[in-house]
Specification:
Blueprint (H helix, E strand, L loop, with lengths): L2 H11 E4 L11 H9 L8 H7 L15 H13 L5 E5 L7 H18 L2 E5 L11 E6 L2 E7 L12
Length: about 160
């Protein structure tokens, strides 16, 4: 695959959610989400998405005026507004407290159910595996376990 083809694939099919949000500091919530929409031929409706994420009333706030959970929801919005096939989440709760972490996990679960995209989540929090359809455990770059989760529970019921 050429670099150009790979870039096009990433732009059209992948959404990224990072542990540290990576919001653009001089753009408000709505503008940060719209950045993702510009990268898509078939973006989701930004206003509808902000309502889904509980951000509509914060749409004119700058990142430094938001809580960590609101910043992460904005980051999720920017990733999914592109309407990606795959949402890659790198430690999406790593910088958040327990209650906010559960809120974000419930939101990711809702996004998966609402928009039908595949979610691939990397985490060191062992409890999160309980909300997954499939669990792939890695150690030293090697797959150690790969199984279907027969006893999946909602994110809101996770405990750690």
């Amino acid at each position: 695959m050429t670099e150009k083809t790979l870039t096009k694939y990433r732009r059209n099919h992948l959404g990224y959610v990072f542990q540290m949000y990576n919001l653009i500091p001089n753009l408000n919530v709505q503008e940060n989400i719209e950045v993702g929409a510009y990268l898509s031929d078939d973006p989701l409706d930004v206003n509808e998405l902000m309502h889904t994420l509980g951000l509509y009333e914060h749409r004119h706030k700058m990142p430094n005026q938001l809580s960590g959970g609101q910043q992460q929801r904005t980051s999720i919005g920017r990733a999914i507004v592109k309407n990606p096939d795959i949402l890659l989440c790198d430690e999406p709760t790593g910088a958040l407290d327990y209650n906010t972490s559960k809120e974000i996990l419930s939101l990711i679960e809702k996004v998966n159910q609402t928009y039908g995209n595949t979610v691939i989540m990397v985490t060191h929090n062992d409890a999160i595996k309980n909300m997954a359809d499939r669990v792939i455990r890695l150690r030293d770059g090697m797959i150690r376990k790969n199984y279907i989760n027969e006893n999946k529970i909602p994110a809101s019921d996770l405990e750690w």
